[in-house]
Write a structure and sequence with these properties.
By secondary structure, this protein is mainly alpha-helical. It has 8 helices and no strands. It has a single domain, classed as Helicase, Ruva Protein, domain 3 (Orthogonal Bundle). Helix 2 runs antiparallel to helix 4 and helix 2 packs antiparallel against helix 7.
Length: about 150
Amino acid sequence: MANKEAQSRITPKLIDSLYVEAMVLADEARSYFERQGREDRLALSPVERVGFSCESLKVTTRLMHIVAWLLTQRAVEAGEISRAQARAPDRRLGDSPESDPLFVEKLPESAIALVTASQELFARVRRVEEGSGTQPQASPARSLLSRLERSF
């Protein structure tokens, strides 16, 4: 029962919203790194160019982990796989490659925005995933309402 209550926090609407956000961000990243990012990269020193390329791969990796996890959640909602199957280690969110903040601040502004946005989205999805396996803390107001409903 506790797990069912926790799973109710992951709604199809939340998954769809995160999925759209991830896909839009992935499209923005692809567009930037294929076009303007190439020009921005050429303006960097050789060492910074390598770091820029690594950061573009980190952004892509984060986003693909997010999309894969969200597609797994959609599969659960569609009845294609069970919640137990979705909790298998190979279906978890995965690890996000770390970015060095001191290096990231040297990147062009557009690249910094994409790195930051991918990190923030990953952190939010990680919180959703972590919250999905635990019972949510009871709200004092809901607890009071529940007691009142049982009284009548």
